[in-house]
Every structure is written in C-alpha cells, then in structure tokens.
Amino acid sequence: MSNIRELNADVIRDAVETLCIEANTSLPVDVKAALDKAEAAEPWPLAKETLGLLQKNLCVAAQQELPICQDTGMACVFLELGQDVHISGDLHAAVDEGVRRGYEKAYLRKSITADPLQRVNTGDNTPAFLTVHLVPGSGCKITVAPKGAGSENMSRLAMLKPADGVQGVKNFVLDTVRQAGANPCPPVVLGIGIGGSFDHCAALAKKALLRPLDQPNANPYYAALEKELLDAINATGFGPQGFGGATTCLGVSIEQEPTHVACLPVAVNMSCHVTRRASREV
Amino acid sequence: MQYVLHTPLQKSDLAPLQAGDTVLLSGVVYTARDAAHARIMELLDVGKELPFPLEGAAVYYVGPTPERPGCAIGAAGPTTSGRMDAYTPRLLDLGLACMIGKGKRSAAVKASVVKNGAVYLAAIGGAGALMARSVESCEIIAWPDLGCEAVRRLVVKDFPLTVLLDPHGGDLYESGPAAYLASVK
Hints:
The complex is a heterodimer.
Chain A: E1 5-8, H1 9-25, H2 29-41, H3 45-64, E2 74-82, E3 85-88, H4 91-105, E4 129-135, E5 140-147, H5 149-152, E6 156-160, H6 165-180, E7 188-195, H7 198-208, H8 220-234, E8 249-257, E9 264-271, E10 278-281
Chain B: E1 2-6, H1 11-14, E2 22-31, H2 34-45, E3 58-60, H3 88-93, E4 98-101, H4 107-116, E5 119-122, H5 128-132, E6 135-142, E7 151-165, H6 172-184
Parallel strand pairs in B: 1-2, 2-3, 3-4, 4-5
Antiparallel strand pairs in B: 2-7, 5-7, 6-7
C-alpha cells in the first residue's frame, strides 16, 4: 500500500480553473496549424478571406483577453487517473468548483441549464461533464474540452446493420455533414466512434476529438479511413461557414472498439473550427 | 458588392441586396434567441407591447459572454438561426427587416423573407472576439433573468456581414458551394 499517491482535490480544482480559461482563449497548436495549412491551400477567394477572418478572430481574442467564441460551452472534463492515486476530498465538487471559478474569473458565458425541460440557468456553468478513465500508475492528467452547442447539436449516432459495412459508415458520416450545413461553424472537426455499445460509441466519438489533428489513428486501416472521409467531406464544396470553398473540414479522428456480432454502431461528434482542449498533469 | 446600411432599415435599402454581397451595418441591433423569442410570442398572443419596435428592426441571434469592466460587450458571434425558424415568419410579417445569424433557414422562413422584402445576413460563426469589435454599446432592455439570452440593445458600427437570403429568393448556402464546385470541374 506504500505505493499509493495522495492527491488533494484542491490541486485538481485549481488545474481545472486554469484549464477552463486557457482552453477558451487560445486554440490548441494542432488546430491552429490545420487552420494555417487550410488557409494557405484554399483556392476560392471568398473562402480564403473567411479563413483569414477566423485567424484575425484568434488575434483579437488574444489581444483583448476575450474568449475565441461566445459559446464557451459545456465544461467537458476528462481525467486520466492512475489507479495508484488516492484523492483526498470530493472529486466532483472540486471539478465543479474549478469550473465555477474559471468561468467567473475570465468572464466566460454560463450556458448550463439545470434541467433539460424546465430550463433554468445554473448561473455558474456547473455542473461539469466529468469522465474518469482509470489507467495504470500514479499520474493524473486533466483535460478540459469546452464544447459549444452549435456543433454538439449537429452530432448523430446510428445503430447500423453489420451488412452496411464501411460504406454504411461513410454514408452516415457524409449525411451528417450535409445535414449540419453551416450550423456547426465549418471548417469542422469530426470525432467518430465506431463499434462498442450504444453508450460507448458516443463516448468514443467524444474521445476522438481529444486526439491532436496531426496524429492519425494508430491502426493503418482506420488512418486511411480518416483520410478518405476528410477528402470526401472537403469535396462537398460547402467551404468555410458554408459560403463555398475547398475547406469544409480540418480533421477527422476515429476511435474504434469491439462490438456485438449483430451490431455496427457509429457516432459522429461534430466540432467546429474552435475545437478547444487544454491539458495538464497534476 | 458591398453595401453600407443603417438601422432602422427601409425595405427599399434592402431591395438591391443579393446573396453573397457584403454589408457594413451601423445603428441599433437587438439581440434575441430561443427564450426571448418564446416570450415575444407570448406578448404578441395577448396583444402587449414588445421590448423593441419591429418595424425596420435588425435582430441578432446572439448570447454574448459577460463584458469585462470597461468593455461594451464580451465575445459576440452568432448562434444557429434555425432554432428561431418557428417564430420568424410572424415577426417578418410584423415588420422585422433583418436577421443576423448563421445556418440554414426553413422553407417557410425563406418564403417569408421574399414576401416581406427582408434579408437574412451571416455573422462569422465562431468569431466572437472579432464580431465584438464592432459593438459600441450594449444594454439589457428586457428579461435580465434570461442571462446570456436576455434582450440587449446594441449600437454597432460597420458590423461586417454577408447576405445569406436576399429578397429575391437568393440563398448563399446554395449558390456559394455550387459556384465553387463549378470552378473546380
């Protein structure tokens, strides 16, 4: 038992506070790099101009300490928690308090309604949406990925038939992009879950959005599928903001899992050009 | 083409606009989104006065972040307009001239835009910091209990917008991608 590491929940609270602010005011380097690359390659004048405005927005946000986007999102918090860590204090309360402090301190928008049908704003952007993954060791990595509703609302899940196969998955992903149109603020980023159970599939899609855009799936089959889907989405011609152009999507990440012999679940978690995440080890 | 427009808007000012044109809008713009629209409908149902006059008005679908001390507004990019579709034709019939947001509208909204000689303009989605630069002042004029969804009166200067739906039935979400695809064939 001497290998157990004690971690005070206050440390997690303070990290969550900082990460909420960092994630909402600066773009991850991989997303910025994908935007730079797309802007340089974009052949359609209005699209290039629109991508330029997105770049300008990032500069204004940095200069004026403003959030990049007014929808500062649901605070999705992910913990990769070593199984040799013992947390002293209440983890959920600490994460919520970190969100409360971060959103208040940095003038971020409070977008959470206490009840899905009775719609009363909680006023402090809590509760956080916390996912804990237990991993070997004694580390604790915290990621805050604020998620806006414009893109979240365009996400979809389908229980396909195994006979639908990879073509069924491709059709579903492209239909999802077509239905979404300009609502999720293209150029979009797609997190895709394939396999698992109904609930795991949705979680896989969300998890896929945490992977840097310059890091393809480790499995060559799925890496090739990511590339194929990216090209197919960009061939729609929707372009930045749906005004037309070559840049509709900045990146596609797939996470896959074993599934039942009778199942082929697929989930698309839609994200936008402001795909935000910030991480730190505590 | 780029047009310079001031509110309140005359329908004759909007007539020349075509999907894909850009607009620099100055003057008063009112904010309203889901919850405010629902309350506006309740007021109309009982014949009560609205928080702002609809005739010639521009409505921006936005829920800004809280402003820092000394700033007019926080980040203020558009929200998805389609959520307001159910309410929109009634407001257009009552004189609403301009809607600012992002995303496709229903067939009923498109028809109502043409019928009423109104326009639907795009602000850049996800560019909340950039859009905020054009806002000179912001005050809550109704329903502060709605928080970010309260109705605000904004004074904007050279607010940069793009025409999505024009009074002649033009739709940039159809013509824009089609023109790009034709260019790469």
